[in-house]
Amino acid sequence: MLSFATNPISFGLYQTGRNIDKQLFFIVALRSASQENKALKGQIGQLLSENARIRKELAEAQSQLTQQKYLDPANYNLLPARPVGLSRYLKIDRGSSSGVKVGTAVVYNDNFVGKIVQAGEKSANVQLLTDPDSKVAAFSQGLLGKAKGILLGQFGADILLDKILQEEKINEGDLVYSEGTETFLPRGLILGRVDKVLEQATQVFKQAKIVANFDIRDLELVYVIQE
Question: Which among 159, 91, 103 is positioned nearest to 131, based on CA atoms?
Answer without folding.
Answer: 159
